[in-house]
Amino acid sequence: AVSDAEGAASALPEAYKNEFSKWSFDEGAAGFFTGNGGKFALTIPAIKAFTQSADDYSVVCDPATLIATLTVEGGKVILNVQRAQGVVTVKDVPVTVINKNTGLSATVSVSNGLEKDAEGRYIITTAYDLAYVSENIADLYSADFIMHNDVDMSVLSGFAPIGTTEIGFTGTFDGAGHTISNLTVSAASPM
What share of the chain is helix, strand, coil (3-state, %, to 5)? Predict the structure, then answer.
């Protein structure tokens, strides 16, 4: 069976088919963001079917995980993503941008994480950053962290402890004089 995208591409002049095969996210097939969201760019091929209007593109993703919007800036489709309400960890979530005129698409697999400082410590600046550590303790149990801001945990409905008896936290956590307020632990700590 021929997909809509393949059908649209086969109906175009031969010179354009090369351009379509090159259409992909500038950063590659995987995208990574820190904080609440990020931007990923697609360079628009210089052919008439790919217009410079955001209305000519649509975006498909899991709305329970990510909120995605599109803009067009300087010959590029800009995909803006942010975590959906209550989502902390985003791992390999496919996001597809579709050109409505041709049916052709480009997909990026989106994940989030934490930034590191010059010393290799993960930076905690928000409640979601701290919750990310809790949700990903199996990978981060021996990592080092530093707070860059006071963190108000009231934006989250609950918080699981960082570490368990099975996976104990063995890294370092430097509060750097900052405070964590309104923290409610939602799971009984086995420690």
Answer: 20, 35, 45
Q: Which residues pair with 180 in a beta bridge?
A: 151
**Residue 148 near residue 124 (C-beta atoms within 8 A):** yes
Contacts of 84 (CB under 8 A, 6+ apart): 63, 64, 65, 66, 67
Contacts of 178 (CB under 8 A, 6+ apart): 147, 148, 149, 150, 151
CB 168: neighbour CB atoms within 10 A? 12
Longest dimension (CA), the chain: 67
Using alpha carbons, list the distances in angstroms from residue 165 to 142, 150, 160.
14, 28, 13
Please provide residue 113's backbone torsions phi and psi, each rounded to the nearest 5 degrees. -175, -160
CA terminus-to-terminus distance, the chain: 57
pTM of the entire predicted model: 0.74
Instruction: Name the amino acid, one letter, at 167.
Output: I
What is the spatial order of strands in the sheet that 105-113 belongs to?
30-34, 105-113, 93-99, 57-60
Q: How far apart are CA 82 and CA 166, in angstroms?
A: 32
128 vs 3: CA distance, rounded Å:
39
For residue range 16-52, list pLDDT tens digits in order.
Answer: 555 555 577 888 888 888 877 888 888 877 666 677 7
Starting at the edge strand found earlier in the chain, the sheet holding 122-124 runs 122-124, 144-147, 172-174
